[in-house]
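Ticket #4471: structure output looks truncated?

Reporter: J.K.
Steps to reproduce: submitted the chain below (252 residues) through the standard prediction queue, then opened the result file.
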Amino acid sequence: MHPIVSRLASLAAGSVAACALTVGGVVAAGLPSTAHAQASVLLKNQTAKAVVETVDHEARELLLREANGHLITIEYGASVRDLPHVNAGDKLSIRFVETLGADIAAPGSPLPESTLTTAKGYVHGHPRGVIAAFRRERATVQSIDLPTHTLSFVTTDGESHVAVLRIKAMQEFMASLKVGDVIDITRMESISYVILNDTTAPAADAASAAGVTAPAVPAALSAPVNAPVSAPVSAPVSTPAAPSAPVAAPAQ
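Returned output as attached by the reporter:
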């Protein structure tokens, strides 16, 4: 199966670093000039059109059907609020974006916190919602193997991880590290949707929503960041149909 959906896993989930750093075969975004100190890459930027099959308000779950018949299940936790509601039969345009960033932590800086950002507005008169999860971890480098692009580190929860870095920008970042360095890792996963069949926005609402722009463009998501999320926000994939085939602010 090849579902086009990003997993918005629990912001409190462990092994975030391992998942983030072992992704390969992706296109690197613009690398900052200070590549020796930090790196930023774009892992996913995909779109899809789907129809809402069912809405489970109690389970906070949407079942979508793509044009090719594939089913996508999107779970949105209790922390996701104040977004345009969707109903069975609604036609959606969806975008999934995922980015990964890493940088050397400043000495004495506080531990990074995972956060959740939501926003709503209008796109050409159609209601639009955005959910972006920023999962942040701090880790200490334990070993570096440049020939095999392998990095081992331990996170603040005491768990050890081994990552094979297949992205050039991340390999360059690893080459600047030494054993004992403390790094902050941020993985941003976002989903945005536009309700294509809904009514045009009132002029006042459209004006107030002018700051909500396409999430696939770095720094476009300008909604305020909420307090750290304790409830899980996830988008696990369910694709029971036949085999076949995530918006975004950069990592903050």
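Triage note (M.O.): checked the attachment and the full token line is present. The longest helix spans residues 168-175.
Status: closed, working as intended.
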